[in-house]
């Protein structure tokens, strides 16, 4: 005698339309964060000075991740949206918040226009960062300015 061994699996998880997304959902973990509003700032991200928009939903704590829109410099005072990311607090440092009167943000095309005087400050911060990187101490004797055959 052969029995029918087919099984039926049903989900015991409630519909997400009534309760919202599950606490851990693989589709949500791969999606970039939503940064609908926030303040602009100069930030150091992994050593580079960038223009960012920090989400207002990010709590003011050194222990929580930070949702930001990162903008790349395109031309003179124009920046374009590069990406939206959630960063670990050790990967970002807010250098200087920017007054909203010094920016014009066209969200529909991801463009930020920055006041000229702020561009000068950003360039100085970037050059200071590059100068700091250039002064990283090297192990003695390994990188000599004289070649070994002149000794």
Query: What is the percentage of strand-forming residues?
Result: 25-35%
Number of strands: 7
Record the strand order, biggest sheet.
5-1-2-3-4-7-6
Written as H for each helix and E for each strand, in order along the chain, the element string is HHEEEEEEEH
Q: What is the terminal separation in angstroms? A: 95 Å
Integer average pLDDT: 74
- Major beta sheet, specifics? 7 strands, antiparallel
Question: Mind explaining what this structure looks like?
Answer:
With 151 residues, the protein is α+β, with helices and mostly antiparallel strands. It has a domain of 101 residues. 18% of the residues lie in helices and 33% in strands. It has a 7-stranded antiparallel β-sheet, with helices on one face. A hairpin with a 4-residue loop joins strand 6 and strand 7. The termini are far apart. The N terminus is likely disordered.
What key attributes describe this structure?
single chain, 151 residues, alpha+beta, 7-stranded antiparallel sheet, 3 helices, 33% strand, disordered N terminus
Task: Present the secondary structure layout.
Elements: H1 16-19, H2 26-29, E1 38-45, E2 48-55, E3 66-75, E4 78-87, E5 92-97, E6 103-106, E7 111-114, H3 116-134
Antiparallel strand pairs: 1-2, 1-5, 2-3, 3-4, 4-7, 6-7
Region (Disordered): 126-151
């Amino acid at each position: 005698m052969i029995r029918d061994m087919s099984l039926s699996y049903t989900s015991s998880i409630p519909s997400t339309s009534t309760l919202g997304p599950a606490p851990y959902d693989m589709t949500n973990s791969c999606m970039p964060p939503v940064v609908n509003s926030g303040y602009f700032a100069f930030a150091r991200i992994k050593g580079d000075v960038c223009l960012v928009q920090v989400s207002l939903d990010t709590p003011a704590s050194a222990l929580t991740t930070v949702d930001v829109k990162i903008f790349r410099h395109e031309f003179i005072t124009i920046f374009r949206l590069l990406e939206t990311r959630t960063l670990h607090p050790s990967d970002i440092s807010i250098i200087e918040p920017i007054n909203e009167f010094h920016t014009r943000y066209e969200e529909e095309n991801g463009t930020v226009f920055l006041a000229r005087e702020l561009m000068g400050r950003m360039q100085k911060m970037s050059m200071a960062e590059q100068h700091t990187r250039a002064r990283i101490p090297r192990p003695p004797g390994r990188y000599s300015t004289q070649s070994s055959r002149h000794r």
